[in-house]
TrEMBL record:
InterPro entries: NAD(P)-bd_dom_sf, SDR_fam. Transmembrane segments: none annotated. Keywords: Oxidoreductase. Belongs to the short-chain dehydrogenases/reductases (SDR) family. This is Short-subunit dehydrogenase. PANTHER family: NADPH-DEPENDENT 1-ACYLDIHYDROXYACETONE PHOSPHATE REDUCTASE. It comes from Neolewinella antarctica. It comes from the Bacteria.
Length: 137
C-alpha cells in the first residue's frame, strides 16, 4: 500500500513485487520458487532520517503536514515490527517449501488487506483522515 510522501519508495517496492512474480513464473519450469516477503514498518533507524531531510519542504505548501511528520514517524517506529520477526519470516520461507508467493509481515496485516479491497477513492479518504489525525493506520 502506498502512503503519502514515500511514493518513490512505494514504487520501488511495487517494482520488486512485479520482478518477483515474473521471476517465479520464469523459473518455475526449473523447480525454482521465488517469493516476496513484504514487511510493514520495522523498528529501524530509517524513521529518524525523515526528520533530518525536511529543510527543502519548509515554508511551502507542505509546511503544515511537515509539522506532523515527527508524530507520524514516531508512531510508525513504535508500532513497527522487531527486525527479528522479519528475520524469522524469511527463515521460515527458506525452510518451508509450501509458502505463499507473497507474504505480508505486519502487525495488522488483516487491516491492510481489507483496505486494499476498498475502492481507491475510499482508500484515499481513509489515508487522508489518518494523516489529518496524526495516525499511522
Amino acid at each position: 500500500m502506498s502512503s503519502p510522501f514515500p511514493s518513490i519508495y512505494s514504487a520501488i517496492k511495487f517494482a520488486v513485487e512485479a520482478i518477483t512474480d515474473g521471476m517465479r513464473r520464469e523459473l518455475m519450469p526449473f523447480g525454482i520458487d521465488v517469493i516476496s516477503i513484504a514487511p510493514g514498518p520495522v523498528k529501524t533507524p530509517i524513521w529518524g532520517k525523515g526528520k533530518l531531510q525536511t529543510a527543502a519542504y519548509e515554508d511551502n505548501r507542505y509546511s503544515s503536514i511537515l509539522a506532523r511528520l515527527d508524530t507520524y514517524t514516531e508512531k510508525a517506529n513504535a508500532g513497527g515490527l522487531e527486525p527479528e520477526v522479519v528475520a524469522a519470516a524469511i527463515l521460515n520461507a527458506l525452510e518451508d517449501h509450501r509458502q505463499r508467493p507473497d507474504q505480508l509481515v505486519t502487525k495488522r496485516g488483516w487491516m491492510a488487506k481489507l483496505v486494499l479491497r476498498l475502492p481507491k477513492r475510499l482508500q484515499d479518504r481513509l489515508i487522508r483522515g489518518n494523516l489529518d489525525n496524526d495516525r499511522r493506520y
